[in-house]
What does this fold into?
Amino acid sequence: MNQNLIILPVILPFIGALIGLLAPKSPNTQTRIGIATFAATFAASIAILLKVNTAGHLTLLLGGWEAPFGISFVVDRLAGLMVAVSCLVGLAVAIFSKDDLESSLRSNWFYPLSLFLVGAVNGSFITGDLFNLYVWFEIMLISSFALMTVGNTKSQFEGGFKYVAINLIASAFFLAGLGLLYGKMGTLNMADIALKLSVSPAGPLVNSSSALLLVAFSVKAGLFPFFFWLPASYHTPPSAITALFGGLLTKVGVYAIMRNYTLIFTQEADFIRGTILALSLATMLVGVFGATSHFDMKRILCFHIISQIGYMTLGLALFTQLAIASAIFYTAHHIIVKTNLLLIAGIVQKKFGTNDLSKTGSLLKKAPWLAILFLIPCLSLGGIPPLSGFWAKYSLVKEALSLEYYLTAGLALIVGVMTLYSMTKIWSEVFWKKAPEEEKITFNKTTWNSYLPVGMFCLLTVFIGLNPQILFTYAEAAADQLLRPNQYIEAVLSTEYIDTIRKASFAANTLNISENDLP
Amino acid sequence: MLLLLSIFAPLAGSMASPLICKGSGKAAPWLMAAIPAIIFVGFIWHLVGQTDADPIFVSLDWVPSVNVSFDLQLDGLSLLFGILITSIGTFIVLYAGGYLKPKDHAKFYTYLLLFMASMLGVVLANNTILLFIFWELTSISSYLIIGFDNEKAESRKKALQALLVTGLGGIALLAGLILLSEAAETYKLSEIIGMGSELASKPLAQFALPLILLGAFTKSAQFPFHFWLPNAMAAPTPASAYLHSATMVKAGVFLLLKLNPIYGDTAFWLVSLTAAGAITLIYGSIRGLFQRDLKRILAFTTMAVLGMLVMLIGQGSSMAIKSALLFLLGHAFYKATLFMVAGNIDHGTGTRDVRILGGLRKAMPWTAAAAMLAALSKGGFPPMVGFIGKEYVYKASSTLDALGPAITVTALLGNALLLSLAFKVGIHPFWARATEKQESQGWSSLLPGQPHEANLLMLAGPVILAFTGIALGVTSQFWSVGLIASSVSTATGIESLSKVYLWHGFNLPLLLSVITLTLGIAIYLSRQSIWRNESIGAYIADRDSEKAYDFGFRKFIESSKNLTAKIQNGSLRFYLWVILVSGGAIIGYKVITIGVFGSLPEPSEFRTIHLILGITIVSALTYTAFTEKILPALASLGFAGLGIALLYAYFGAPDLAITQIIVETLSIILILMAAIKLPTVEKRVRKKRRIADIALASIFGIFAFLLTYKSAQLQIAATISDQLADWSYALAKGRNVVNVILVDFRALDTFGEIIVIGIAAIGVSVCLDPLNSKAEQKSNFAPIGGSPILNYGAKLMLPICTVISLALLYRGHNEPGGGFIGGLMCATGLILYSLAFGTASALKKLKLDPIRWIALGVLLAIFSGALGIVSGNPFMTGIWLPIFELPFLGTIHLGTPLLFDVGVYFVVIGFATQCAFAFQTTIEGPKSNPLDFKKSI
It folds into this structure.
């Protein structure tokens, strides 16, 4: 059954971006186009979320070509959730930017570029084709690079250059893995690859591709030791842009890992899962060390992104339904909370002209409401109950303990306390402390457009915290789908095609490899 | 209902506090105090009305996925704690109303009531995780309260210390509770406890015990985790009074009592609780001796009392538990009183330094009375409730077998020290002769303020609670069954109905009591000489475990700074190395764990041409790697690219070869344009590094070669491309398979790629022309100028290129060509024109700004795809018009894929012209060195 609905989260932002490019360059026009498009996209994503929750899978065979011959789009519960959350982030940042970004940025490229970015992010979530995923990655890379350097300052170019250089290396790894895989499997459709591998005894033969792709996705996700691009660049653009990046970019890498290593590379998985586990733990630790070492609000938050990514991939490495559900829960929670914190960093920066913690202070007294709005995501990130972050961490630790991964659970808990520590550093320095030269600081008023998305994210954080079961139920259903790749395969490929492939013999002797070579 | 109310009412009060305090002004403390008061009445109602000891339950589903339900339970133990929390809480709220400035009320009540709600949650929770949730909330709310005076660095530091110590204990507790629940296969606390000592024999539960104890000990300030508690004195006095008497620190004791039925019989429990408790008791009271600040003295006595409680719980016998509960009850009332007394003294005199206090009884008669009663209760004088507590401690310790004597001696010493400390706070300031006494008044002239009695709000608490201490002592046999016996039942798992009596006749405990009193008073009387020997106190304090905490904290920050500086060191080269080496390591790890399958295939036929091309490419690249000048590097790079294009051509992929050549040329030209602005690369890269880089690159190259070489032989499944070739003309109406793949089978990829180049064009604009000034206003690139041949040629070429490009575009579907190549052709004409006549004239020919061409092109591509939707098919489904004939042009077959290709054509024109024009207009300008990227981290 073809669902044109699921093309909308990709196409709508693009149309909005293109209209923006054609429209007059006035800040108001551009802002209106941007916000309206993001709102429409968000509405579409909610429609998809509701539909996929009942239907399980939504597929679209582009151009009407039967899979695997054309490109397929597939939305399962995981993709549906990710699309909805990323559209929400886009909408929130669009509203926030109205007053936060200088009008020269808004009148020019900001809205079209961020729409391109969100469209590509959605494309990465929805696509069912490995090469197509590469294309979305490229759009993400180039649009985020342009957004990063949009302010044209030297530090932005410096950061942006490192960002691009490292990500291009990732692209090379991606292409290498993809090329080898296509050479062996003769197809790029993810369901088709999964099907062919599942009926073939030759699964171990694609492990080079599997490792190459893992490196590529790890760079995108910001896992240790591949994350360098993130702390080098994220703090340089205006906060609204950092918030957009922080909420979305790394999560695409996490999603790609979740997708590929549940659907395609499921054979000989011990090696991959062991690697992911080790990378996750190292990432959690190194990220939080980075956060404790810095004294700048935005940089602290950026290092936290890395640390938290470790938790998400950790859930995948444990590979049980609850562990994967926790990882999904974690990802959704993290996007909401992290975007929010970076937006608040933007408000703080507006007030003081800097995010350097030694120059801030007094905000509990001067802006008590902002203090509350900060405290909610701050404590949530630190895993304080009953906010969303607690549930994410708790379920992960619970599952790790019951699987007897004691060291892992202990590390996850300790990193949680370190995270809380570095968040209290922000609270203490921005809100509690008396600002140096308090009398001289003007404390700009924050407008409603800035508070609106922040408040909305706070409400959402509290809502998830008080009703985590809603998200858990959904995440468990999503994890269940991930653990049954056949459902995905059957949703994409026709029954006849599957039968043909299954009947066709892929016996080892047709493969130029002898029986003895196989494990 | 009562249970839900007792958690949600304070919670609601906490949130509404700013509104209530703003709206009701002076009445606010009374309104806020009504919340705990009402709950207190509810508890008492339950206590009185209850005929049997059946607990009451609430059970609501919450998060079944992770075994968390909103289960509450009111048993004997939680009732006792609930009554303490709410009764003392009521007076604390009132007291705070008098103690704090009105502007601080809202903030304080928010924190305090949150704290109260969390504490009630801890004692009522009947689900292990729910208990932990409230437990963490007490940590957070105490963090906020301790840091209440938030502009003082000291307060912030102490708040953080408390949070970190209890937070670390908290995570241990969480792990312990999960393990315990997993061992019990239920998360319901009452069921877990119901399993009793049987559960303790399971390995998981044994593993859980140290973790749970870590949580309880940090929270209840047991040595060596105690130091945060005296430091928590940074909190405002009402908060300290509450934290110390009824809440926070008692949470750990509560948990120990609660788990006693499970672990009470284990040796680990006995040893660790006894040891930790005894050390804490003695250490705390000795540290207290040397203190001069009233609040710090009290803090150390709290620590000591907690030690006593933990030690007693460790004994596990019914009598020991009973004595612990009585001791706890007495402590709650006198400690709250004494803290409020300390607050009143501070308020009235401006100091809490006990050495200059004295003779205040006349100025503060009510406070003095309350202080005296509390001190006597704390000292264990009859008929106070404190006396009963002490009596039962001795009763319990004298009935123990093995450890009995040791416990008795420890308890005796501890009690005596506690008495002396109690007198120091409760008696000394009012009754002692002040140093440098003023003749007329009786107090010291060193006092910063003129002593005066506190107001009603601040007296209500201490006076009423102090008198409660007597009342409870005298009436013990009436309340003890409902309150203590049922708690003992909860904490031992054995039904207990015995009453508590004030008077037991002349026996060993009484004798011990007398010794305690004598010893304690003796220590009190020698207080001046103890203060004179402060150096001993300082000596001990210097060796406190807090130093270890400070050291660990400092090391943690230092090492995280070092580590981060090492890893994120700003060098892109380092980053790339780490990524490549680690990526290689992962693949190598795969080879080791999974192994290599099959052998390398025999090389297929090998021709000279392969060798020549290979050598050419490799030598060109070697030159690129070694040269230090940018132009030769680019040229040789381009040369290698051409070599690759030839390889493509040789292996029968003309489309690939053409594309490779065009892209290679275009990118070299663009980089050259940029390179004009760059300074020459000096010898800034050291030779050794360069060789290492080349080695790494070569290893990767060889590795990639081996992988490709090997996998070329491994065709696991038939490729889909044969099918595409079959369908190309039959279904997709095009003979040029490459083009059909680009605009039909995989049109979405092409769609993505034209967006990429569209954004790249924007990126060029962002980088070179950030403000996007109108084309007309730009510094118009001066035409190379004057050459009539160029002018004429350019004028001629423009229409020719345009026509050829259109032809390429149209025929692309069937023969080599297409939108991409066509667009480049058209752009070439325009760029040539701009070289001759300047960018402004070329833009005029283009009619629209290049970026708008790109936008139009992509929109056209979307439109062509959307036509598929309109026809009821998936996005991008091709729709074809019937074939018709036109003169000159022959057979015409139009369809949406062609429209899509037109979109590509527009985008390419826009992209190429945008890049070229932007470089042309900015070619003049100052040279900068954008490669100097060392600084950004």
In short: Residues 770-780, 924-937 of chain B have pLDDT under 50 and may be disordered. The CA atoms of residues 140 and 163 of chain B lie 7 Å apart. Chain B is about 70% helix and 0% strand.
